[in-house]
Amino acid sequence: MDEVKLLQERIGGRWVGITFRHDGAPNEDLAKRPMRLCEAIKESNTRPIALTRHLVNCPGAQRSLGWTTKEDDKIARKMVEASGIKLDIARKVIANTPRLDNGIAAVLIGSENPADVLISYAQPEAAMRLVRRWQQVYGADLHLEVSSMMAICGSVAVRAYTTGRISVSFGCPDPNIATLCNC
């Protein structure tokens, strides 16, 4: 049984696999238009989606995936504008958000098994089952870092990939994409 089906049966909810490709972008399943990583995850319930540097239109996701290294100040200013936090705090949040730096060519969402990371927009009951399962397996509480900035791309997908640990986000307020990202 693949990992996605196993989680859906044991935890509940819909899970999607994400694979970070180093060996080039696929010719099939490319996104039909530029989009945010969080948006592609949500849309992958109808079909697999592949994103490349040119198909990601979110500066936070571009940064998190290692496709830009010079946008931190622009992202910080956008965070200030969108959330009202102070500029120095926005810069600290960005500095603490993981970034890939190992030459990702594409991100495949919902197509490859095994995946590098599994993501779910989980309902509270499914999230509680996940935490309970963690406690049953490891005999300890699940300690989490939660961020509202670059919440899906950096604070969940990249952090889980780089640490091998569960990452959680409650999403970010954005009037254009209901409760997904804000960078």
Query: Averaged pLDDT, please?
Result: 85
Q: Structural class of the helices, strands and pairings?
A: alpha+beta
What is Rg?
16 Å
* C-alpha termini separation: 36 Å
Strand segment count: 4
Number of helices: 7
Order of helices and strands: HEHEHHHEEHH
Q: pLDDT below 50 for ≥5 consecutive residues: which ranges?
A: 175-183
Shape: globular
Count of distinct structural domains:
1
Biggest sheet details: 4 strands, antiparallel
> What is the helix content?
25-40%
Structural commentary:
With 183 residues, the protein is of the alpha+beta class. The protein has one domain (3-163). The protein has 7 helices and 4 strands. It has a 4-stranded antiparallel sheet with strand order 2-3-1-4, with helices on both faces. Helix 4 crosses helix 5. 36% of the residues are buried.
TL;DR of this structure?
The protein has helices at residues 3-10, 37-43, 59-64, 72-83, 87-95, 124-138, 153-163; strands spanning 15-21, 49-51, 106-109, 117-120.
